[in-house]
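Changelog entry: the NAD(P)/FAD-dependent oxidoreductase record was regenerated in this release. Current contents:
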Amino acid sequence: MSVEHTTVIIGAGIAGVHAAESLRKEGYQGRIVLMDCDKEMPYDRPPLSKEWITGETDKASMLLRDPGTYERLDIDLKLGMEVVAIDPVRKTIDTKDGSSYEWDKLLLATGSKLRTLSITGDDLQGIFYLRTMADAIAMKQHMQHVKEVVIIGAGFIGAELASSLKQLGMNVTIVERSSYPMEAIIGREVSEYLLDMHRRNGVEVITGDSITQFNGETTVEEAVTAGGRRIPCQAVMIGVGVTPNTTLSHPQLQAEGGYVVNEYGETSIPDIYAAGDCTVWPYNGVPIHVEHWDHAVNHAKIVAQNMIHSQSAPYSYTPYFWSDQHGSRFQYFGHATQWSKTVLRGSIDSNAFTYLYLDDQNIAQAAFLANQPKNALPVRRMIQQQKAVDPEALADESVALKKVPRMF
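Regenerated structure tokens:
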């Protein structure tokens, strides 16, 4: 292969691996250097809170690609490499070990980093954040003799962990600071539904409270809340969200809640691109940030195309994520930070419904699906079309979603 040109990709997660693979599929003949600070072969993160914890999958099956794939595609995979500086003039990057790499095109696929808490006693053994394979291995080893677990945060990671650990027969308590977790994303009615689902499945959920102290000799034995609750536990999982990993910076590199990119994945510095969870990108004319597996894959593929054929493929994507909890599959399409009305299609009590979020013009901005995968495709199309719909017909299950009248 020709090595006249070099593309360096920083981050070997979902976005980085798919971008490298897509470059080859698009016919790129130059050198590809794919690097990551993690020493593990690139792996899939979502199963860490589900199939890995419950023992339904092993380490090898979580690899994003067979190790031989990188050799076959002539991708120079460099693990355990931390990038510390970018020089856009010389077109080089420097790593912590003192190495320097030249590049013609650079892709930032640095993903996200954990939000952390500072709580008295948080240096005790048995207190975990779940982000990396190393975290998951340490957690799984510790959990072998644990009966009582406290989970801080009722977001999707915390909720999935609660489901997985309950499945293993543990007593699980979730402590959530807000009264209605994820209300800003899914609304109060759906938030109440999810809280009730966990309680029906034997998970104790404490809302409107927070952990202020951990007690124990060497290993955590008790979590104390601001409201005075004392919760016995032998393990604590902290899942209070993530933020875009924009640690790697440069004065000319615009980062506002993520590396700011245009519809082609271009950053504010020529020949530097960014893809996936670390970005803020234009959606329906508004800059947004999402941290979804599906977005990371699709964004990386499109950005890779634009790295080869400049500004040839604008990114047009409807955000999507899913979550498996207590035997249910939840799906969310679109992006809505506010809405004028909601439409319930189906029955919440039946655990099978579609909940839609409409703006003041009756245009669907987002939808939450509970155990109704058949509605996924028509809902996605409805959101993509951005046309007003008839709310009454939308709520009527006798009217097929694809036949709900559009109000032009």
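The mean pLDDT is 94.
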